[in-house]
């Protein structure tokens, strides 16, 4: 079994906790009274505590794990959920303890859910493998249950727990074939070698003495003691470097203090210079204002002397301004008049042209494509006919697509589309592409031509291109 997740909404001092465990060993680290032991107790109670509790029989359990108060109300329930991987898949066990109304649910690996406490107990017993005593005394020993754990580990007589432990140990020895002393001795020798390799215990130095220190260390077969020695020397070197750095920091600190004092002095001088600089700037600003005022007074004197002439020029300018405004209005009128004439011309041309429906263009283009496709069906021949008249009888050729007739004389004739060769009063032969009914094709062509020419006549044009040009011209006139 592997515990995957443990969570609760309320259990003792825990509120809304969700703890996920990784494969392998997991450590719960935290200060005292942070809830580490309570999490372990929650896991134990989920597996072994009945969901129905009695206020008198389970008073210790209630005192330990039920919250004392919850604001103005007394809390009356605690809960927990554990998700674990068993031999058949992943299970999710949920319990809440609310006196006689407590509930329990077990979600099975196949997605089904059980609520029967007895059936759930059988599944948990199968997945847990060992009895409750093993988990009480070895897996979940708690300070809250230490009396029970000690009694189970050191009983006066034989207990169920002793029998379980003995059974587990006996099975382990039988399955491994007992203890091999030679292998144990070899393992111990290897462990000793692993600790003392390349280490001179008498000199309490690496083999080779101080010549094999950090400047020339052993590269291979470094025992645990030698490795610890090199680690110690590295730490000592780091400590020396730290002391040197500390001295350097002290020196820099003194230099920094001196630089700070110099900075303060420089700031004082800068403030004094700033005060003088502000006064100089005010003086220069005042001088500039005075010079500007003098120039303005001189300009005003000059204007007063030139005022009679300026007034006369102002009156002339006013008259010219009025004349300019009238001229601009006249130009505007002429431009607008020209635009009105152009507009009326376009309007008359637009009325003359009329409107073109885009649906007519689309339908005319479709009909022309269909006409071309149907005519092409009558044009799928590549024949050469040799005509030789045996008398004075007339031989005629009629193009089935257009109805055009032509008299034939001796010689060769290329036939590329459906035709009728007729000797009046004697015989009529139709040459057609295979699978074509000329009467149906001609009837279809007549209907499409009628619709096609009807659209062109409606819009007073002779082709689709002319109809499209007319549409573009109407659009331009509308713009």
Concise summary:
56% of the residues lie in helices and 16% in strands. It has 479 residues and is α+β, with helices and mostly antiparallel strands. Among the domains are: 2-129, P-loop containing nucleotide triphosphate hydrolases (Rossmann fold); 314-352; 358-478, no CATH class.
Descriptive labels:
four-stranded antiparallel β-sheet, 56% helix, six-stranded antiparallel β-sheet, 479 residues
Structure report:
Among the domains are: 2-129, P-loop containing nucleotide triphosphate hydrolases (Rossmann fold); 314-352; 358-478, no CATH class. A hairpin with a 4-residue loop joins strand 7 and strand 8. The protein is α+β, with helices and mostly antiparallel strands and 479 residues long. The longest helix is centred in the middle third of the chain and has 82 residues, at 224-305. It has twelve helices and 14 strands. The relative contact order is 0.04. The two termini are 83 Å apart. It has helices at residues 36-48, 59-65, 117-128, 132-139, 146-153, 160-176, 181-196, 224-305, 307-353, 358-377, 438-458, 464-478, and strands at 2-11, 14-20, 78-86, 89-97, 103-107, 113-114, 199-200, 205-206, 383-387, 395-399, 405-408, 411-415, 419-423, 427-431. The strands form four sheets. Strands 2-1-3-4-5-6 form a six-stranded antiparallel beta sheet, with helices on one face.
């Amino acid at each position: 079994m592997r515990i995957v997740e443990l969570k609760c909404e309320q259990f003792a001092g825990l509120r809304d906790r969700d703890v996920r465990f990784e494969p392998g060993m997991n450590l719960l680290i935290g200060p005292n009274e942070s809830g580490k032991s309570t999490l372990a107790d929650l896991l134990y109670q989920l597996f072994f505590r009945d969901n129905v509790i009695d206020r008198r029989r389970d008073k210790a359990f209630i005192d330990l794990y039920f919250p004392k108060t919850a604001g103005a109300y007394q809390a009356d329930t605690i809960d927990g959920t554990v998700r674990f991987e068993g031999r058949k898949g992943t299970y999710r066990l949920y319990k809440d303890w609310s006196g006689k109304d407590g509930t329990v649910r077990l979600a099975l690996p196949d997605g089904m859910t059980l609520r029967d406490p007895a059936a759930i107990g059988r599944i948990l017993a199968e997945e847990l493998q060992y009895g409750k005593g093993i988990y009480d005394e070895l897996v979940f020993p708690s300070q809250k249950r230490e009396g029970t754990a000690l009694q189970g580990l050191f009983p006066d007589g034989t207990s169920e727990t002793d029998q379980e432990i003995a059974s587990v140990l006996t099975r382990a020895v039988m399955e491994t074939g007992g203890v091999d002393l030679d292998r144990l001795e070899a393992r111990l020798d290897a462990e000793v070698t692993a600790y003392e390799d390349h280490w001179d215990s008498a000199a309490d130095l690496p083999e080779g003495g101080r010549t094999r220190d950090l400047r020339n260390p052993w590269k291979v077969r470094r025992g645990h003691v030698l490795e610890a020695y090199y680690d110690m020397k590295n730490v000592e070197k780091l400590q020396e470097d730290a002391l040197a750095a500390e001295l350097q920091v002290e020196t820099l600190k003194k230099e920094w203090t001196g630089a700070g004092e110099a900075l303060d002095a420089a700031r004082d001088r800068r403030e004094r210079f700033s005060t003088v600089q502000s006064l100089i700037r005010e003086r220069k600003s005042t001088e500039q204002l005075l010079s500007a005022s003098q120039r303005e007074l001189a300009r005003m004197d000059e204007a007063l002397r030139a005022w009679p002439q300026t007034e006369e020029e102002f009156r002339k300018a006013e008259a010219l301004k009025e004349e300019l405004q009238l001229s601009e209005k006249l130009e505007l009128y002429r431009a607008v008049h020209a635009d009105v004439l152009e507009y009326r011309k376009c309007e008359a041309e637009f009325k003359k042209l009329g409107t073109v429906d885009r649906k007519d263009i689309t339908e005319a283009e479709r009909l022309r494509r269909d006409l071309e496709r149907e005519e092409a069906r009558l044009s799928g021949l590549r024949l050469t006919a040799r005509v030789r008249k045996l008398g004075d009888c007339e031989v005629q050729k009629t193009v089935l697509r257009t109805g055009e007739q032509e008299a034939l004389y001796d010689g060769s004739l290329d036939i590329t589309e459906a035709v009728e060769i007729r000797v009046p009063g004697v015989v009529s032969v139709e040459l057609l592409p295979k699978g074509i009914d000329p009467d149906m094709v001609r009837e279809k062509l007549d209907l499409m031509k009628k619709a096609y020419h009807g659209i062109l006549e409606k819009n007073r044009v002779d082709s689709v291109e002319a109809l499209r040009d007319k549409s573009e011209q109407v659009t331009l006139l509308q713009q």
